[in-house]
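Discussion board: Methods & Data

I've been asked by a reviewer to show the raw model output for two of the constructs in my manuscript, not just the figures. I'm not sure how much to include, so I'm pasting the format here to get opinions. Each protein appears as its amino acid sequence followed by a line of discrete structure tokens. Is this the kind of thing reviewers expect to see in a supplement, or should I convert it first? Here is construct A:
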Amino acid sequence: MRTEALNAMTDEELEQYARTLGFTTKAAKSHDAKVRLIAKRRERGVDVSALGVDLRVPVRAAHDLRFTQLISKPDRTDDDIEAAMAMLLGEEQMDALREAATEDDGTVDQDALAFAYARILSSDELKNF
């Protein structure tokens, strides 16, 4: 959500939105402090490891509607999954995963990537935010 939209919300709306995200803004005394608290909370992330690669997954990316729609499509394709994971991890981390799944002769082990994606999406770390 844009900061401008957060700034335009009432204190009550900010509190309700924060509760939707799983926390409260009661400790913040001013409107600006509530907005900053929400923005900071959305910037956090979790660390997950897959294929020996340490990854940082931002909360914002996991809660992105575009990511959720791609992952939830009943007729999703391999390209949908690849696009969703790129949204979640970003290009640099996706490249690191691809590199870990690539053999010396250049063969990319799609089973290794599928395992990594499943490991990431089912990780306890992601379930807790």
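Construct B, same format:
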Amino acid sequence: MGYQESWLYVQPQMCFSNLIRAYEKTARTDYYRTMGAEPMSVVILKRPFGEVPKGVKLLWVCGDRCFHTPVGVFNGNLKSPAKLCFIPVEQVLDPDDYRLKGIDLNSRAPSENAYMKRYSVEDYIVRTKAERER
């Protein structure tokens, strides 16, 4: 199986911004076009999923699972002492899971339901920068 998806969960959550900065630095190169597993979405859980509590921000990472590592996702650009956990999506969701209803994983536009909010990584970055500037 070549293409797989994982949730990247960081603890403590205050280190989530480190993941976003590492993504931005990596995205400025051609790395995601040629290698690695790319973060495609930011998900904010509105309800717990297994042992992952509500309120948690996750990166939804897509690509060959052998690259689902900090180096594979961020090409060595992640500088954080935080604890990272990769959770294979199939451990928490089925492809036709009711908790995905209304969530568009292929759009740049945000989507939301009773279980999660989903943003494209690019849209999340734009929104957080705009919020900081206010």
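Answer (T.O., handling editor elsewhere):
This is acceptable in a supplement if you add a one-line summary per construct. For B, something like: The chain has a mean pLDDT of 92.
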